[in-house]
Structures are given as C-alpha cells and as structure tokens.
Amino acid sequence: MNKVKHIAGLIAMALLSASILFGCDAEQEGSRQVRSTPDSTGQSGSGATEGQRELTVVKEKKPPAEQGIAVQRIHQMNGANIEKWLSDHELEIQVTTMEKQATATEEAQFSYHRFQVDLETDERLSIKEQTGADQGEVIKSSLSPDGKYSFIQTWKDKYKAVNEIENMATGERHKVAVDNYMEVGGWINNDSYVLAAGSMKDRGEIWNISVDGTKKKIELQDPDVESFTEFATGNGKIYYTDAKSRLKSFTPTQSQPTLLTEDVSTFSLSPDSQRIAVSTSTSSGQENSRLLIYDTGGHVQGLLIGKGDLVSHQSWSPDSSKLAFAVYTEDKGGMNGIYIFDTVSGKVSPLGLSYYPVYPLSWNPSGTRLGITVDDKEKLIVTHIVDFKK
C-alpha cells in the first residue's frame, strides 16, 4: 500500500495544450470494450461470476469521434484539494502550505486557506472563516434527492453532533433528538434520511428520520455487523457490508437482510440507485481486486470493469451515466491510473495519465469535469481538473 502514493507522476506540459482523445480505433492501445462470457449457473452473487467473465479488448472500426472519452483541457492547482463544487465551473478548494519543514525533533508545520475558484476565468477569491459556527465546530449537510430538504449535522467535537432537518424553501429547521457518534447515513427517498448513529460500544441504533423531524428506530437482525464502514441508501433500500465482507441490503420494514454478494472491499451506489459498483478482493492470482457492476438485487450485469492489485475511489457522475475509478497494479503492463466506465456504451476508457488519487474523485454537477488530487513531492498535493469534451 505504501507504494500507491508514489505512483502518480508529473503531468507532461504538452498534454495541457493538446486535445486528447482516448479510446480510439482498433490499433490504438487502451480502449476496452467490456464483454462477458455466458453465465452457466444463472445465479446472482460473486459465486456465479468467478472465472466466467473477463475484460476483453474488442477491435472496432468506428470513427474515433464516436468512441471513448475526449479531454478538452486540464486545470492544475498546486497544494490544493477540492472541498466542494459550487456550480459547473466554480468550486471551493483548500490550499495547504508548508510553513516549516520537519526536523529531527519537530514535525512539519502547515497552514490551510480556503478559496473559491472560477475555472472559466481562473479567478481565485479568498474565503473567510465560516460564520455562524463556534470555534471548533464542523457543519456537514446532505441534500435530499429532490433538493427540497437538507440533513444538517453540527459537530461540537468528534463524538457528538446536533442533527437538524432544514426546509430549503422556507429555511425552517427541525431538531432531531438523536445521540450519534458517526456521520454514516443517507437519504433513502425524498422524505426520509437514514442515520446509523453508531456507539462507543457497538454499532448503535439506526434511525429513519422524516423531513418533519420525527424519527423511528429501524430494526436490523444481523449478528455479523459490528459497525458500518460501507453504507449507502437509495430508492427505499439500505446497503452495507458486514464483518465478513459481504454486501447486504434491507428496508426499514424488513429486519432480515438479503445477501447480495461476498468478498466485497468497497461499493458505491449510483445516484439513481439503479446500479452498484462493487470492488471485490480475492486471495488467488496476481490481480487481487476486481470491479463489477451489480443491479440492486445483487445480479451481476455481465461486466468486469477493472482489475488490478488495488481498485478504489469509485465515483459515479451525478447523472449515473459514468463511473470513474482508480486502479493500481504492480505489473506496469496491467491497468494503472484513472478509468471512466460509460454505462451506455459499456466501454472502459483510460484517462491516459498515471494518476492515482489520494482524495475522493470529484465530479462537477453536470458530469463534464472530474477532479483528481494526487501526491506531489514538491507541492505536497496537486489537483488536476479534467474538462471533457461535450
């Protein structure tokens, strides 16, 4: 794992001024069409897919303009990571500056400053410290799928938060009297937020919180989950992994979970709650991690999206049409860097540069830009924002 953070190289300056087209014709390396072999068992879950699906390079004769991912421009921001997108071309970043280098007896000292950046004009405005919050408080919010409500957590410290539901049209807030130690949760539909509150002793309670601030405890009968490290909600269902790395789902009215698949390291539910990107781990072979697409019932969609020593940082575009993910493989002939899976064409296209992220991959609201933050020896970190051709 310690090698992962050192594999991201410097971007060639020539690429910043060129329009790069990936996934071109049959003679151009890197464009992959995903194909599955027949599933002879007809079963769902990882057991039905082992050894039966493969990533195959398919030669096609379509014009390059009709295929792949086209990059228009790459923005580079030194020492910065993305905090959030404000619009398609505006975002908030945090810039980290080393004030004093580490010595044999003292740690390095850093300063942190926030800026609002306009990618169209390259204008950068300093953001003053957040008002309305006491010193040491951290405020986090999550919009409902329809954007009408927001679940807000104000963390007084790392163990306790004040929870509220805000009506975005009126500004009215309802406090939710729940003790929680975790910020694990999500909107299960437009009207309810599910909070896995956590506990100092066990997994804690799971609450179904309505937009009027009322709450109801959700029962889950599963002795194999001690805490929720992988958790997602959407379209009326709750998804999580248990202590045995098995992906399961249940509903607020169904206390017995349904097993979807096994050997899961990470998963990511698409924004439209129709697909699940699942990274699996195996102990055999040189490639230990695979990325597959499942439907919400646990059925493999016949697609092996990626494979390598480590597959991580899955990030769906807001419209669920594309999935960005990172792959690291010790064997340089294998998959390495950032890849984009297009759900419409079924194509997996490499971004072309040997990025490996150290922060989550970040799409802008329309899915036309992707932010990638990597380590850098001189600048600490560097964020590259890739503009895709429309």
Explain this structure:
- This protein folds into 2 domains: 1-128 and 265-390, no CATH class; 130-262, Beta Barrel (Lipocalin), CATH 2.40.128.
- Helices cover 1% and strands 48% of the residues.
- It has one helix at residues 13-16; strands at 20-21, 32-36, 53-56, 70-78, 80-85, 90-100, 109-118, 123-127, 138-143, 149-155, 161-167, 173-176, 184-187, 192-196, 206-210, 215-218, 231-234, 237-241, 247-251, 254-261, 264-269, 275-281, 289-295, 300-308, 310-316, 322-328, 337-342, 347-350, 362-363, 369-376, 380-388.
- A 6-stranded antiparallel sheet has the order 3-2-28-27-26-25, with no helix packed on it.
- The radius of gyration is 22 Å and the shape is globular.
- Mean pLDDT is 81; it is low at 1-67.
Give the gist of this structure:
The protein has about 400 residues and is mostly beta strands. The protein has one helix at about 15, and strands at about 20, 30-35, 55, 70-80, 80-85, 90-100, 110-120, 125, 140-145, 150-155, 160-165, 175, 185, 190-195, 205-210, 215-220, 230-235, 235-240, 245-250, 255-260, 265-270, 275-280, 290-295, 300-310, 310-315, 320-330, 335-340, 345-350, 360-365, 370-375, 380-390. It is built from 1 helix and 31 strands.
